[in-house]
Specification:
Blueprint lengths: L2 H13 L12 H20 L1 H5 L8 H26 L5 H9 L17 H18 L8 H29 L3 H20 L11 H6 L7 H19 L9 E3 L4 E3 L5 H11 L3 H14 L1 H19 L1
Antiparallel strand pairs: 1-2
The structure holds 3-hydroxybutanoyl-coenzyme A.
């Protein structure tokens, strides 16, 4: 297909809210946007394993350890689905990984905050995975087929993650006064950073309009943030805890949930690499990558042997 016919075909797919598949012609900017968003998302899943993996050895029971291990393993799987989806756009996984360990790629701001108590495992599951679900369910309808299909499976697993976080907080909240306070402190720590996961306010979000025009993003950052606040307001009551924000209210005119101001300078600092854990997260990722070199070499040698056997 030449560029003119390709563009016409692409425009028709967009107008019909249909799916673009890897072999379809697509504008270079659409391809770049997808690689940017999908690779950032993949990196977030992989870096996101760290705060929770740190707690596997300290989980309070065998049951909690098993659940946490399964969850961390799921995040690795999500990273793999997403790297595979991005590879269908022509960018090799090695290249994306190089960018991450060189500190040139973005990953979610949220994973640059420390998880300081067991209750943080609950708050991460409930708030962070809750925000991820709110943001990612609409991505199951993203226009790029491999991304949308990967998101369906990811969202199912994220629902389990959110429930396990909710259950940790519920148990702590129904425990002793000290345990309840631990749960409340964790919610206080993770509330604002989880709201920032949705990205900058709409009037400061350079990519949103184009991504929405291409049916990649379905809703704006602020719209999703507002929906998330509404979900949390209901659930926090069941937990017997509170959200650290006395400005939350439902605006009857706009029919949207509103929240108190967020510190966008802090967000910018974290994105610039100056969050509390940026350096540690990247350092651990680098050493894990180096430690895993022998596995990659062995897998490549095995694949070469298999190919040689088929060719012989
Ligand atoms: N953390 C880090 N960077 C962020 C960010 C965040 N929370 N929010 C926005 N940014 C970056 C953007 O990537 C963009 O930078 P770039 O132009 O260099 O790529 C810049 O800030 C401006 O933001 P925009 O709103 O214009 O960017 P987008 O239109 O891409 O919207 C997004 C940002 C909402 C995060 C969107 O990319 C998205 O929905 N991504 C897919 C979901 C995702 O990546 N989630 C990661 C969450 S963690 C996770 O899923 C793991 C799970 O286990 C919890």
């Amino acid at each position: 297909m030449d560029d003119t016919a390709g563009q016409a075909n692409f425009d028709a797919l967009m107008a019909a809210d249909s799916r673009v598949e890897p072999r379809d012609w697509m504008p270079e900017a659409y391809r770049r946007t997808l690689v940017r968003q999908i690779s950032q998302h993949a990196h977030s899943e992989i870096i996101g394993m760290q705060p929770e993996a740190n707690w596997i050895t300290r989980a309070p029971s065998l049951r909690r350890k098993a659940i946490l291990m399964a969850k961390v393993q799921d995040e690795a799987g999500h990273g793999l689905y997403l790297y595979s989806a991005a590879e269908t756009l022509g960018t090799p996984r090695d290249e994306m990984m190089e960018a991450l360990i060189a500190g040139k790629a973005r990953y979610s701001s949220i994973f640059n905050y420390p998880a300081v108590s067991w209750a943080d495992m609950g708050a991460i599951g409930w708030l962070v995975d809750g925000a991820a679900i709110c943001n990612q369910v609409p991505l199951c309808r993203a226009s790029y087929g491999p991304y949308a299909r990967a998101m369906v499976r990811i969202c199912k697993e994220e629902s389990f993650h959110q429930r396990q976080g909710f259950e940790i907080l519920l148990e702590l909240s129904r425990g002793s006064a000290v345990q309840k306070q631990m749960a409340q402190d964790a919610v206080n720590r993770w509330y604002a950073p989880s709201l920032m996961m949705f990205g900058p306010p709409d009037d400061d979000s350079p990519n949103s309009l184009q991504s929405m025009a291409w049916n990649i993003k379905r809703f704006s950052n602020d719209e999703l943030r507002s929906r998330f606040v509404g979900m949390m307001v209901e659930q926090v009551e069941v937990l017997g805890l509170t959200l650290p924000d006395d400005q939350i209210r439902f605006n009857e005119e706009t029919k949207k949930w509103e929240h108190g101001p967020l510190d966008w300078n802090e967000f910018k600092d974290v994105l610039a690499g100056h969050g509390p854990c940026n350096a540690q997260r990247l350092e651990r990722r680098r050493s894990a990558h180096d430690d895993g070199a022998w596995v990659r070499e062995a897998a490549a040698a095995y694949a070469a042997k298999q190919q040689a056997a088929v060719a012989a």
